[in-house]
Amino acid sequence: MEHQKVLIIGGGIGGLTSAIALRRKGFAVEVIERDPTWSVYGVGIIQQGNVIRAMAQLGLIDDYIEAGFGFDHVEIFIPTGQSVAKIPTPKLVPEYASNVGIGRRALHKVLGDRTIEAGANVRLGLTAEILDDDGAGVSVTFSDGSSDRYDIVIGADGLYSQTRETIFPEASRPEFTGQSVWRYNFPRPQDVTGLHAYEGKTGIGLVPLSDALMYMYVTTPEPGNPWYAKETLASSMRVKLADVPSPKIAELASSITEDAEVVYKPLEWVFLEGPWHNGRIVLLGDAVHATTPHLGQGAGMAIEDSLVLAEELAAAADCESAFTAYRARRFDRCKYIVDASKAICFGQLGKGPLIDNATATREMFMKVAEPI
Ligand SMILES: Cc1cc2nc3c(=O)[nH]c(=O)nc-3n(C[C@H](O)[C@H](O)[C@H](O)COP(=O)(O)OP(=O)(O)OC[C@H]3O[C@@H](n4cnc5c(N)ncnc54)[C@H](O)[C@@H]3O)c2cc1C
Questions:
Q1: By 3-state DSSP, what share of the chain in percent is helix, strand and coil, each rounded to 5?
Q2: CATH number 3.50.50.60 given to 5-70+102-173+269-350
Q3: How far apart are CA 114 and CA 285, in angstroms?
Q4: Is-contact 323 277, C-beta < 8 A?
């Protein structure tokens, strides 16, 4: 099916890696992104060996590694700040680190630049208002009134996917877990050279992003999904950390002062148990399997989806067999990540058994090391 014309809806992590993967296979690619400024918020993301392997397959590993901070262990702490386990993490590409912490903006720049260099056409400030699939192709009417026709449409438009709503109006919708996450950037202390994960009711992590920078995430129970006014975010985040006994965390908490720098997000998930495509339109990434971030694998799954979908589209004779093969290769792995991440979340909330973080992390590393 090479040389066919593909529309990707959503210029986020999954949309951009799809664009790069499909261009490498010879497809003509257009990406539309709703946000006219194509901006990304300013904290970071953790990515493991499977993502580093995927970035090598996408041909952008050196730019990617240079934009982040590579590390080879995860250290687990109890709330008092005592280290209880240091888990070495498997390298899947021998000459590179086994994990990367990377700023979301830095990752977006690498992926956005590479998408454009690869020859994909990126159009900003646009959504697809009508998708008319007549079996031979999809006629798309855009929000600016323009229209065009494509062989394939990929919905990579995230948790609240408009494409999912269009092709599967009855599909399950995102669910709030009862937990939220607070994030904030700090100068990186010398000793934070890997992920520091603190166990307990308030889950805390310190993630190196560069020589100069790290970010902290804090997961908190938020029954009823309260709304926090922007001008209270820094003080609210400090309050959430007030009872944490670790002196190091207390010291960091005291320097959370900028409301505009706090990134607060209620944690939601969605997983489509049924089909992932309808005719010539297929879903990918958070649009079809959005996880809570407890295993740091949501974006990893979106990136792997991109590689698998491009491979199957290049190899198959028609969309139906490509999309069926794509879902078959992705379903169990993505479901494992969503379920295992939710289990940690629900354990922290007392909605399920408390999950041992070190054990869950070890298991996840083994699973994602398997080939995609
Ligand atoms: C708090 C938190 C922490 C996380 N931490 C990690 C982590 O450490 N490691 C990890 O691997 N993953 C992490 N994730 C998950 C990760 O962010 C997502 O899995 C990943 O961003 C999914 O990529 P995506 O391309 O599917 O969706 P998105 O990144 O959401 O991109 C969707 C894009 O589509 C655009 N869009 C939306 N609607 C439309 C429309 N109608 N038309 C056109 N464009 C549209 C959006 O503007 C956006 O650019 C975390 C998630 C959360 C919530």
A1: 35, 30, 35
A2: yes
A3: 19
A4: yes
Round to whole Å and give the CA distance between 238 and 202: 12
**Any atom of ligand 1 within 6 Å of the Cβ of 46:** yes
Atom of ligand 1 nearest to the CA of 17: 25
Q: What is the DSSP string of 239-294?
A: HHHTT---HHHHHHHHT---GGG-EEEEEEEEE--S-SEETTEEE-GGGTEE--GG
Question: How far apart are the C-alpha atoms of 243 and 173, rounded to whole Å?
Answer: 35
Round to whole Å and give the CA distance between 177 and 157: 21
CA 107 to centroid of ligand 1, rounded, Å: 12
Check if 45 has its Cβ closer than 6 Å to any atom of ligand 1.
Answer: yes
Whole-model pTM: value is 0.97
Return the H-helix or E-strand segment holding 307: helix 298-315
Query: Alpha-carbon distance 254 to 327, whole Å?
Result: 47
Backbone φ, ψ for residue 184 (5° rounding): -160, 140
Mean model confidence pLDDT for the chain: 95
303 ligand 1 Cβ < 6 A = no
Q: 136 CA distance to ligand 1 centroid (A)?
A: 30
Sheet with 83-88: list strands edge to edge.
83-88, 73-77, 195-198, 203-208, 213-221, 175-187, 263-271, 289-290
- Give residue 353's Cα distance to chain centre: 26
In the chain, where are the structural domains located?
5-70+102-173+269-350
pLDDT digits (tens, 9 = 90+) for 95-114: 999 999 999 999 999 999 99
Comparing C-alpha atoms, which of 289, 181, 281 is closest to residue 241? 181
**Closest to 66 in 3D by CA, of 126, 6, 106:** 106
| 220-235 tens-digit pLDDT | 999 999 999 999 999 9
Ligand 1: which of 33, 89, 159, 270 to mutate, most ligand atoms within 8 Å of CB? Answer: 33
